[in-house]
Design a protein that fits this description.
Layout: H1 7-14, E1 26-32, E2 35-43, E3 49-54, E4 60-62, E5 64-67, E6 71-76, E7 85-90, E8 96-99, H2 111-119, E9 130-136, E10 139-147, E11 151-158, E12 171-172, E13 178-184, E14 191-198, E15 203-206, E16 222-223, H3 235-243, E17 252-256, H4 273-287, E18 291-294, E19 298-299, E20 312-316, H5 323-335, E21 339-344, E22 349-350, H6 370-373, E23 374-375, E24 380-381, H7 388-405, E25 409-412, H8 415-419, H9 441-457, E26 462-465, E27 487-489, H10 491-501, H11 513-516, E28 527-531, H12 543-546, H13 551-567, E29 571-575, H14 600-618, E30 632-636, E31 644-651, E32 654-661, E33 667-674, E34 679-685, E35 702-703, E36 714-720, E37 725-730
Parallel strand pairs: 17-18, 17-29, 18-21, 21-25, 25-26, 26-27, 27-28, 28-29
Antiparallel strand pairs: 1-2, 2-6, 3-4, 3-7, 5-6, 7-8, 9-10, 10-13, 11-14, 12-13, 14-15, 14-16, 19-20, 22-24, 23-24, 30-31, 31-32, 32-37, 33-36, 34-35, 34-37
Helix pairs in contact: 4-5, 7-9, 13-14
């Protein structure tokens, strides 16, 4: 037996249980019989022979096979210091492999990187952890790094080492919990995983938490990928975005599920990112939406989760194409004046064995105690927001999508489940905070940290909260003890509004407050009014199904409902299919029912929504002062008997009078109050024949009269159509 390595070290390395393989493997200066020599040690189990080749002199030194499982060593007595070398590996049958030695490279992660990560403030940690293509001293390869502080050992397995964990054993960097190795010769497209052995000797193969690309489900390997090669063409868009917040600009969002917006081809396959860059972008632009919001496009194992159970937080799903193709889709959106929002899911993650769950054999990303670490109702695990490395993982992920993919906004899913420790938990199945309360203090601090970082470093980017409770200050600045979101989904408005429009028109007068109550709290937060995917699934019925009446009445009900929504203060979101009056509930398993556009009722509704979108973006009174009380005033909110509401939307130089009639009754001579004396002209009417209406329009300008009406000293005499949404503009002199 040679005297430069012990049998115990060899056995531990062959069992992949040596925490510092670089201290044994690779080249080392050793004492051999009192003289200094160089030892080179390698583990390559399938090798027939290995030679050490001096890259300068060309001298060859044959390695001796010390162990049958592929442990080789060369003792080079003629050398007494490190020299530049390569390994020449013979696998037999003429298969010769020449490579640099992976165990000779210095760590690619600095002590400062590790310090910041431990403090939770390494916001670009995705450039260090994961798999990164690098050229180190002229050697091409990939550096791998993963956080697994409680693992006994971590190895990289992949296409490049025959998925053999003994071949590429990682080293632990100090007390950071980060394992690292640079492997020469690994190229883009190589698949890999981390094989983690926990303290009890159990082994699990894990996808890379920071991996940029993943295999198509059901496969779960990560894929080496260079995300920096795409050449962007959206500089003007980004420059404009950075100069303007969205508070005083139009926002009407088209919410899309990529897998079911439109299926393609005879085989009904998914639309790709590249196809979406043509079909979807063209459609959204023609329809007049300002933004597309994609339901989660981070990699996820189960189609039925709609993307809300994420397995690859840094990888766009491979269902629809490559990362560059997703970047191209976003780029094309920006070049066509369309912003891109993506649903983001920091509230929970699935239990899949290849994912984050029990990542190093312990509850690393989640809590050990299921009373705070698990959502039983969803079958998912809850992030441990109080752990700095976990919060860093999530905050860096948000910045990753903004910086690398030019995403214009993130809609944060299930915020209420993050804020409350007792969310969907029965008594005895949750733990109070240190003060005895139900608030998740760590999650609150995480959200404040997230939003403060994005607000300070990503000007013009929107962060939207799906928060369904009355938590105070969701969109208040963090320096005033708010959570710091840009916008909040107005779930209260949505529930009241849907409850109202589902009622038969004869009963609506008894529920008039459902229309008006939202203005009681409208300026507490910066709201987005939403008719989202959650409202047209799980037996809730489509929008066309919800509203009462015959087919004409259903379409008219939707026209006045959508009109009221667009005129109400707040930004807007509408789920795909709502604009065509789809009857069937949405399903992720099939395309929208585009064939119904052969029928006038659906085609006319689509025309109406298109016109409504363009009308909304054209008139700044509908959006410039959404969050300023000066931008809205009720004219009549008390006419419950006739189910009519009217109000003024205004900005400093524009006034619009909005009248909504929520019954089938027609008023050929309706006295409508107006605040200002002047000439009023109709600028929008949902009863236009082009929209499927009866054609009861106000074609001529109308001069106001000094006749009191409701809260106004002046009034105009108008035609108010059945189930009608009518808008008048005060003409300037």
């Amino acid at each position: 037996m040679i005297n430069t390595v012990t049998i115990s070290q060899i056995n531990m390395l062959l069992k992949t249980e040596y925490g510092d393989p670089h201290s044994v493997l690779g080249m080392h200066v050793v004492s051999n019989g009192g003289d200094m020599a160089v030892a080179v040690r390698e583990i390559i189990p399938n090798a027939v022979s290995i030679e050490v080749v001096d890259n300068v002199t060309g001298d060859n030194f044959k390695c001796e096979k010390i162990h049958d499982d592929g442990f080789f060593e060369a003792i080079i007595n003629s050398r007494n210091k490190y020299f530049d070398y390569s390994l020449k590996v013979d696998f037999g049958g003429g298969n010769i492999w020449v490579t640099a030695d992976q165990y000779t490279f210095e760590p690619t992660i600095t002590e400062y990187d590790r310090y910041l990560f431990g403090a939770g403030t390494n916001y670009m940690i995705y450039e260090k952890l994961g798999a990164h293509m690098r050229n180190i001293d002229g050697v091409e390869g990939v550096s791998f790094a993963v956080w697994a502080p409680n693992a006994k050992s971590v190895c990289v397995i992949g296409d490049f080492n025959m998925w053999d964990p003994r071949r590429s054993q990682m080293r632990l960097l100090g007390d950071s919990g980060i394992w690292e190795i640079f492997i020469p010769g690994v190229v883009e497209g190589d698949k890999y995983k981390f094989r983690i052995k926990d303290s009890n000797g159990r082994v699990c193969d894990k996808s890379d938490p920071y991996g940029f690309f993943m295999e198509l489900r059901p496969n779960t390997a990560s894929i080496v990928h260079n995300i920096h090669k795409y050449v962007w063409n959206d500089f003007e868009w980004l420059e404009d975005r950075a100069e303007h917040e969205r508070y005083d600009r139009p926002v009407n969002i088209y919410e899309v599920h990529m897998g079911s917006w439109r299926r393609v081809g005879n085989d009904d396959r998914f639309m790709t990112y590249l196809e979406a860059a043509q079909m979807l972008v063209k459609y959204v632009k023609e329809m007049g939406y300002t933004h597309i919001e994609f339901m989660p496009l981070s990699e996820h194992p189960f189609d039925g989760s709609w993307g809300y159970q994420v397995s690859g937080y840094y990888a766009p799903t491979s269902r629809y194409g490559t990362p560059e193709e997703f970047m191209y889709l976003i780029d094309v959106c920006h070049q066509n004046g369309i912003g891109v929002i993506m649903d983001w899911v920091p509230a929970h993650f699935p239990k899949d064995v290849s994912g984050l769950a029990k990542f190093d054999g312990t509850a690393l990303y989640e809590h050990e105690d299921p009373r705070i670490g698990e959502h039983e109702e969803w079958g998912t695990l809850v992030f441990n927001y109080g752990r700095k490395e976990v919060s860093n993982f999530l905050i860096a992920n948000a910045l990753y999508w903004i910086n690398e993919y030019h995403i214009d906004g993130l809609r944060v899913d299930a915020v209420a489940s993050m804020l409350y420790l007792d969310y969907c938990r029965d008594d005895g199945k949750w733990l109070p905070n240190k003060y005895g309360g139900r608030e998740n203090l760590a999650a609150v601090e995480f959200l404040k940290h997230l939003n403060s970082v994005i607000r300070s470093s990503c000007k013009g980017v929107m962060i939207m909260a799906e928060e369904s409770t009355s938590w105070e200050g969701v969109t208040r600045d963090t320096k005033y003890n708010g959570l710091g979101f840009t916008f909040k989904w107005d779930m209260g408005w949505m529930n009241d509004f849907l409850s109202y429009i589902k009622k038969e028109t004869v009963y609506r007068k008894y529920h008039h407050n459902y229309l008006t109550f939202s203005m009681m709290y409208n300026y507490n937060e910066n709201f987005i009014l939403v008719l989202s995917h959650d409202e047209v699934v799980h037996m809730k019925g489509s929008m066309m199904y919800k509203v009462p009446g015959d087919m004409w009445q259903k379409a008219a009900n939707l026209r006045v409902a959508y009109g009221f929504m667009y005129a109400h203060p707040g930004k807007k979101l509408m789920f795909m299919g709502n604009e065509i009056g789809q009857f069937s509930e949405w399903s992720e398993a099939r395309s929208l029912d585009w064939h119904i556009l052969q029928y006038d009722i659906h085609r006319n509704l689509q025309t109406y929504v298109r016109s409504l979108n363009h009308f909304y973006t054209e008139y700044k009174a509908l959006w410039e002062m959404d969050f300023n009380p000066e931008g809205f005033e009720w004219i009549d909110c008390d006419d419950s008997e006739r189910s009519i509401v009217s109000f003024e939307r205004r900005t400093w130089d524009e006034r619009l009078i909005v009248v909504c009639n929520f019954t089938e009754h027609t008023y050929d001579s309706f006295r409508q109050g107006v605040f200002e004396d002047g000439i009023y002209e109709e600028v929008f009417n949902s009863d236009d024949i082009a929209f499927g209406g009866t054609g009861r329009l106000n074609l001529d300008p109308i001069k106001s009269e000094k006749i009191n009406c409701s809260r106004a000293e002046n009034s105009i005499n108008i035609t108010l159509p059945p189930l009608g949404f009518v808008v008048f503009k005060l003409k300037k002199d």
